[in-house]
Amino acid sequence: MKNNTDIKETNSEVGCQKLELENKWLDKKNNNPIANPYYSFFFSLSSNLSFLTSNFYLLISIIWILASTVATAPVVAQNLNDYLQTATENNPGLQAKYKEFEAAMQKVPQASSLPDPTFSFGYLVPKMGSQRAELSINQMFPWFGTLGAQADAASLTAEAKYQSFLDARNQLYFQVSAAFYPLFELKRWQQIERDNIEILEAYKSIANTKFKNGMAPMVDVLRVDIMLKDAATNLEILKQKEKPLLTTFNKLLNRNENAAVEITDSLEIEFVVNKDRKESLLAENPLLEALELKEQASRASEIAAQKQGLPKLGLGLGYMVMDKNSGGDMTNNGKDVLMPMVSVSIPIFRKKYRAAKKEAQLMQGSYSLQKEETSNMLISNYEATWFELQSQHHLIELYDQQTRVSEQALNLLFSAYGNSGKEFEEVLRMQQQLLKYEKMRATAQVQYQIALAKLKYITVK
């Protein structure tokens, strides 16, 4: 049994150690915007000097366990933009879309080129009169403006393919973001669970000490054991969950499924307040641009089909090889003959031209309706995404507040437990409540970022 002098000396030592630990913790907090929620209530335990005297070294170990979980500064991990750039360069689906655009561009010279000229050669067997052989070459020319209309249709179709490529790129950006942020959530949950295990281990040691001193029942130790097993199982499940998430993310980047992914320690939340971006929905969206270009291409195809039904003009040149005649006029006897030729096609079978024109008109109507449907879809998705964004914003604020209140409640409960050795079950319950709010806050932050990425995809930002 210690005398009063020993107790005073011990209390003085505890006070000095506590002040030193508080200063170190404040230094960490000032250097790191992410303060650990478990520090504050442990320092308040010094109010119960007799309890601290008997458990001083144990409490010091608890504090330093918690201190080790706080980073002094955020780790600078690979930026999400770097991964987006990698996905742009490597994703096979996006590359396929660009190949489609390049292939469509090759149709422009095909559509604007003249048909091949025709060459013919004839040799008379047996010989008929003085003509021995004949050569001719002929070039057909479509009606004026036909090639231009065909080239316009091909060019507009290629531009529509490019807009589809841009939409695929923007959609890939969203997919990469939607696969990246769950990795942050998983990492955060794992860290929270590890912190929870360390704190429960410390609780178990305290409960054991109090049980040995006759200040608490054995059931407190058993309660902590149950929660420790739950936490260990949860952590193991979280570790197993990492594999499918990494595979999904890496395959979007066309990388090895086991490639390491650097995850930031914190998220910079960009809170969006105004709905100004909605104005850009119908003006710049590649989906609508692609449909508009397809509609214009159909108009050009209609013009081309109409001109295809007009006569085609042909210019040619014939050359006849002549033999000499034994009699008759000898002036041009045996001279070869050069014969310019003109030809005109007669498009009397009109059914195919009318069908081609009707096809182009129907496609114009189809693209117009698709534009209307896409506009409605974009506006609906925008409103739903905006609601999700604001909902997660409110949840983040709620969980921040609930976390702070839970910390205060846990502080009070633990202080009461230190004084009386009772209500340990309430301490554990509040600890798990705080754990739940920490996880829910991380999830809300991730869902907010995913909703923001979707909003940027919809509004082409």
Write the layout of secondary structure elements.
Elements: H1 4-31, H2 39-43, H3 49-54, H4 56-67, H5 80-90, H6 92-105, H7 107-111, E1 118-128, E2 131-141, H8 146-212, H9 218-252, H10 281-284, H11 286-308, E3 313-322, E4 337-344, H12 351-420, H13 424-459
Antiparallel strand pairs: 1-2, 2-3, 3-4
Helix pairs in contact: 4-8, 5-8, 6-8, 8-9, 8-11, 8-13, 11-12, 12-13
Structural features, described:
It is found in: Cell outer membrane. There is one protein chain. The protein is of the alpha+beta class. The protein has a domain at 1-73. The protein contains 13 helices and four strands. The chain has helices spanning 4-31, 39-43, 49-54, 56-67, 80-90, 92-105, 107-111, 146-212, 218-252, 281-284, 286-308, 351-420, 424-459; strands spanning 118-128, 131-141, 313-322, 337-344. A four-stranded antiparallel sheet has the order 1-2-3-4, with no helix packed on it. Strand 1 and strand 2 (131-141) form a beta hairpin. It is rod-shaped. It starts with a helix and ends with a helix.
